[in-house]
Every structure is written in C-alpha cells, then in structure tokens.
Amino acid sequence: MSLEAQAVAPQARVMALDVGDRRVGVAVSDELGLTAQPVLTLVRTNRKQDMKSLGRLLRRFGCTEVVVGNPLYMSGDISPQALKAQAFAAWVREEFGLPVHLWDERLTTTEAHRHLHAAGRPGSEHREVVDQVAAVLILDGFLAARRARALE
C-alpha cells in the first residue's frame, strides 16, 4: 500500500476533548482521520457522571482513541489547568482502557473565539459552542500531525 493510501486508509474515529472546570467540548474525526466535527459541550457534574456521559459518546461514534487538550503555559511549563486536564485524561484511560493522547492546546480557546467572530457569531453566543470549536482545533492539529508522520 502506498504511503498516500496508508495516510487515508479507513480507521476508527478519534475523539478530542477540551476539558474545563465546568464544561468539556467534544469533537470527533471522520473514519478516515481527515476532518474533525464538533459534537457537543458536556456540562461537568462529577467524575462518575462525566465518565458515563463520555462513555455514551465514545460508543455512539465508535471512537477507539481520545485526544485531550493540554493547556500548557506559553513557556511550555505545566499550568494548574493542564494538571486538571492530565488528571481527566488519566480517568478516561482508566475508565475505558483506550489510548489517550495529550495535545498541546495553547491558545486554542483564543483561536476558537476568532473563528466564531469570523463566522459572524455574536460574543454572547460563544459560551455555548466555544469549547466544541476548541476541541475541533485540538483534533485538527492532532490529525494533521498524524498524517504528516504517516507520510514520512
């Protein structure tokens, strides 16, 4: 199989999560691993309920791996929010036994707000979708890096 064919061979979907204290933005890839689509924003309650909701989504979309945004400081140091995201990633790995990847998500929320402004969404409407858009940006970056590695 050629490298190009390997890069677009059908595979299982990947789910990306933009984890916050109150909400989790969710995005999933297509089966080819080429595009990312927003799914929804989960409102967090507690670990048990968060994992139950996430499990339903993983089954619904047939995802076999997860990418969790890792919000490092601009210096690359670990931020308090990154520690929380890393703990969430560990819970996902423990609960579902799936590969979980941490992905540097510095500035994705800022970029998500820019995308929403460019799309004509008023700032008052950003809260309900900004986490989903951030999850899409996280997944886009992860998928692009994976395709680049496949072509090396």
Automatic annotation (TrEMBL):
Keyword check for Hydrolase: yes
Keywords: Cytoplasm, Hydrolase, Nuclease, Ribosome biogenesis
Class of the enzyme per the UniProt entry, highest EC level: hydrolase
Annotated GO biological process: rRNA 5'-end processing
Residues in YqgF/RNase H-like domain copies: 12-112
Subcellular location: Cytoplasm
Main location: cytoplasm
Cellular component terms per the entry's GO annotation: cytosol
UniProt key word Nuclease: yes
Its EC number(s): 3.1.-.-
GO molecular function, one term: hydrolase activity, acting on ester bonds
Transmembrane segments: none
Biological function: Could be a nuclease involved in processing of the 5'-end of pre-16S rRNA.
HAMAP family, sorted: Nuclease_YqgF (MF_00651)
Annotated family: Belongs to the YqgF HJR family.
Protein name: Putative pre-16S rRNA nuclease
Gene this protein is translated from: ruvX
